[in-house]
Amino acid sequence: MFSVLLLEWDQLHNRRQMPWKGISNPYHIWLSEIIMQQTRVEQGEQYYLRLISNYPTIRDLALADDEAVFRDWQGLGYYSRCRNMLQAARDIYQHQHGIFPKTYEEIRKLKGVGDYTAAAIASFAFNLPHAVVDGNVVRVLSRVFADPTSFHTTAGKRKFQELAYQLMPKSQIGIYNQAMMDLGATVCLPRNPRCEVCPFETICKAKNKNEIDRYPSKKIKAIIKNRYFHFLVMRTGRQIYIQKRTGRDIWRDLYSFPTVETSVRKKPIFDGMPPEFPLPEPERYTQMLTHQKIHGSFYEVKPSATIEKKWKGLTKIALSDLKGYAFPRMIVSFLENKNYL
């Protein structure tokens, strides 16, 4: 009954549109799923359309220049997704003759692909019987069955995964999975759900008990860490110095300026610059990451031979060439506000 009600609603009332919805191309589905991790649909659509336009096949993506792909990804954040995406594309091209894997188990082995993404690709592209369970689906299930189990635990994830699998029909699996997510995104909303148009209104236990706000179980908020970055912006005429970030920290493989991090907001000491050097008043920006708040201070100074020698990996480029490099969103904002981009 559950799947019958959902599929009927999907056919008669579901009007949610997305550029990747209803397609069966596994490469395009994979791109959409990687892009949409931790991303709103409205933001992700433009990146999806850009990537399939610039890299229409796995071969195109596998052979693409890293810098170009990172530039296309710029602003989307979570750059480890982009690195994993490139690695997976190259693995498929080099070891599987450019043919996207067709089983859940093989898809799951791809770099950056977890249970959810593998289930989505397997069901949408190949109609395989794997339940797709995201936050929207959990919200629907927890309310319909008045289940207080937290999805934010290993046992909770397993429980909702099994429940979603049990409710799946024997056919139209991809359509069913998409309908479940669409219902959560457009009807069974976190706040002010539209119960009057929900196909499960009469059987929803949370609705019948007038306890919708109790479900799903709330996630305990993570503690936000504040980090203080100080950027040394060295510009001379129409040229500027940039530096590629390496190491295993945020923004790896993106470009930045020479950076000093302090534990609190205080005047930094840049290598090659005497402590008494009168730093100008900085321009300040902030950027929120998942569990971090980055406080950025930008100091514009004239370059000197001493500073240049102290900082390794500096690259001097023309301001007009900045558009060819990928920067974190905070630095993009600074460059745009200075009319450097």
Q: What's the layout of helices and strands?
A:
Layout: H1 2-12, H2 26-35, H3 41-54, H4 58-62, H5 66-73, H6 79-95, H7 104-108, H8 115-126, H9 135-144, H10 154-167, H11 173-186, H12 205-208, E1 225-236, E2 239-244, E3 255-256, E4 259-262, E5 283-288, E6 292-301, H13 305-310, E7 314-318, H14 329-337
Parallel strand pairs: 1-6
Antiparallel strand pairs: 1-2, 1-4, 2-3, 2-7, 5-6
Helix pairs in contact: 1-11, 2-3, 2-8, 5-6, 8-11, 9-11
If you had to describe this structure to a student in words, what would you say it looks like?
The protein is an alpha+beta fold. The protein has helices spanning 2-12, 26-35, 41-54, 58-62, 66-73, 79-95, 104-108, 115-126, 135-144, 154-167, 173-186, 205-208, 305-310, 329-337; strands spanning 225-236, 239-244, 255-256, 259-262, 283-288, 292-301, 314-318. Strands 1, 2, 3, 4, 5, 6 and 7 form a seven-stranded mixed β-sheet that branches. Strand 5 and strand 6 (292-301) form a beta hairpin. Helix 5 (66-73) crosses helix 6 (79-95). The radius of gyration is 24 Å and the shape is elongated. The protein starts with a helix and ends with a helix. The mean pLDDT is 93.
Radius of gyration: 24 Å
Helical fraction equals 40-55%
Strand content: 5-15%
Number of strands: 7
Element-by-element helix/strand order: HHHHHHHHHHHHEEEEEEHEH
End-to-end CA span: 56 Å
Q: Counting H and I runs of at least 4 residues, what is the number of helices?
A: 14
Low-confidence stretches: none
Largest sheet: 7 strands, mixed
Class from helix and strand fractions: alpha+beta
Q: Which word captures the global form?
A: elongated
The mean pLDDT is 93
